[in-house]
Write a structure and sequence with these properties.
Keywords: Heme biosynthesis, Lyase, Magnesium, Metal-binding, Porphyrin biosynthesis, Zinc. The chain is built from 11 helices and 12 strands. The protein is an alpha/beta fold. It has one domain: TIM Barrel, CATH 3.20.20.70. Strands 1, 2, 3, 4, 5, 8, 9, 10, 11 and 12 form a 10-stranded mixed sheet that branches.
């Protein structure tokens, strides 16, 4: 019997057997949909570099959130774009800031939808960097107290989870301490623990209106060449109290997603970023690829690499395709 050939095709012959031996599964609940919120009413402003994505006023965002909930999407992550920006990013923690208002309104309209808020300053500062600038450089420690204040303001508004993305050293600890001091011990932190200084963020900067006025973000985001450093960042965030660890971007960093899964016991998220989305959309619009098949294969690849949840602009389409 030992010399009989192994025939893997026996387990591929029918849809039924393929389903039974499938190693990884993609579900709508695994997906998190990013939404960009702007002031005003009845606003759906398309993001030219991201076909199918728009900046939304709160009333329009509520409609999209209801649709996401009806499709079974796991949650949405909110990014705010204020009318007024200043050097301190003061609108980011204002009681009536754009995102604070949005959280209140969405929670009232779609109470069971899981809401996550991105915690950063880049959409709110007039220089579009992720922290307080001192002599042209982001001052890490002065920024921490602002990030803490932002996170607490989102908790006051009713957020379910906060997601600090600025790659400041110590940001998770400061946010955890701030939340706990205000009694928000139940609110988890999904840290952008491993965020690379990537060329794939270009369309997001159009959507979030946060292209730096000078310099770039390589002084605080990670070098794409580094792998060992990623695990150091993740381990530090675990020590500081992170509940979920994120890798961003997704496709060029699947090795990092697998490393994170192998080396830590925290749930793992991956951000399928704007440039990845735009490439697929452009190719599909030109008839070069099958959009549905490509997107679902890519998302399954994130799961196979070890991601528990996927932040993606494809979430609504993917959820609909998975239903059908």
């Amino acid at each position: 019997m030992a010399d009989l050939p192994f025939r893997p095709r026996r387990l591929r012959t029918t849809p039924a057997i393929r389903a039974m031996v499938r190693e990884n599964h993609l579900r709508a609940v695994d997906l998190i949909y990013p939404i960009f919120i702007v002031p005003g009413q009845q606003i759906r402003k398309p993001v030219v570099s991201m076909p199918g994505v728009s900046q939304l006023s709160i009333d329009q965002a509520i409609e999209v959130c209801q649709h996401a909930y009806d499709l079974g999407v796991g949650g949405v992550i909110l990014f705010g774009i204020p009318d007024h920006k200043d050097a301190a990013g003061s609108e980011s923690f204002a009681e009536q800031g754009i995102l604070q208002q949005a959280i209140h309104a969405i929670k009232a309209a779609v109470p069971d939808l899981y809401l996550i808020a991105d915690v950063c300053m880049c959409e709110y500062t007039d220089h579009a960097h992720c922290g307080i600038l001192v002599d042209g450089q982001v001052d890490n420690d002065r920024t921490l107290s602002v990030l803490q204040r932002i996170a607490v303001s989102y908790a006051d508004a009713g957020i379910d989870m906060v997601a600090p993305s600025g790659m400041m050293d110590g940001m998770v600890r400061h946010i955890r301490l701030g939340l706990d001091a205000k009694g928000y011990t139940q609110i988890p932190i999904m840290s952008y623990a491993i965020k690379y200084a990537s060329a794939f963020y270009g369309p997001f900067r159009d959507a979030a209106e946060n292209t730096p006025s000078s310099g770039d973000r390589r002084g605080y985001q990670m070098d794409p060449a580094n792998r060992r450093e990623a695990i150091k960042e993740a381990e530090q965030d675990i020590l500081e109290g992170a509940d979920i660890l994120m890798v961003k971007p997704g496709l060029p960093y699947l090795d990092i997603v697998r490393d994170l899964r192998n080396h830590t016991n925290r749930p793992t998220a991956v951000y399928n970023v704007s440039g990845e989305y735009a490439m697929i959309k452009a190719a599909a619009m030109n008839g070069w690829i099958d959009e549905q098949g490509t997107v679902l294969e890519m998302l399954l690849g994130f799961k196979r690499a070890g991601a528990d949840m996927i932040l993606t602009y494809h979430a609504l389409d993917a959820a609909r395709w998975l239903q059908g």
